[in-house]
Amino acid sequence: MTPSIVNRKARYDYFLFEKFEAGIALLGSEVKSIREGRVNLKDSFVRMIRAEAFLFNCHISPYSKIQGHLDVDPVRMRKLLLKREELAWLEGKVSQKGFALIPTQMYFKKGLVKVEIAIGKGKKAYDKRETIKRRIHDQESRAAVKRHTGKGR
Questions:
Q1: CB atoms within 10 A of CB 8
Q2: Taking CA atoms, which of 67, 69, 70, 109 is between 20 and 30 Å from 11?
Q3: 8 Å CB contact between 146 and 44
Q4: CB 103, CB 45: distance < 8 Å
């Protein structure tokens, strides 16, 4: 089973709107590390440079079974592979004040590594508190339903 790496912090820090699936330019050892699930998307972001999209701050740990030393920076900049029309549309959206491109998920699709990126708008502190309150309320209501119906036994 191949892992799906999710950036849970993205949903907490941003209101997410449209999502896109992008390929990513990687080295062979990085693909093997992703198969092991040794990826951290927590503080990563996407930036548009000269009409191309690049993934920054995505930490892909070195492959554990590698022979010899391969000097690859685990947080190097990686190019995202999108269609020209998608790149132009995303650049127009991100140029608006307050919007950013956030990687939300990394997964395998037909043997290729894909990154799901979303257009996000940053949440304020009170929005984050509201998210926490809603999450706690949902947990408590599920627990109450479980106790009431007896499915927890």
A1: 11
A2: 109
A3: no
A4: yes
Residue 34 near residue 5, CB atoms below 8 Å: yes
Q: Strands of 3-151 (E only): list them.
A: 5-6, 14-24, 39-40, 45-49, 52-56, 59-60, 78-81, 99-109, 112-122
Amino acid identity of residue 108, one-letter, is F
Distances (CA, A) of 64 to 34, 82, 110: 11, 30, 24
Helix (H) / strand (E) element for 88: namely helix 84-94
Tell me how far apart the alpha carbons of residues 35 and 32 are, in angstroms, rounded to a whole number: 5
Q: pLDDT tens digits for the chain (153 residues)?
A: 566 888 888 888 888 888 989 999 988 888 888 888 888 888 888 888 888 899 998 888 888 777 666 677 788 899 999 899 989 888 888 888 888 889 999 999 998 899 999 998 887 887 788 888 888 998 999 888 888 886 655
Nearest to 33 by CA among 61, 75, 67: 61
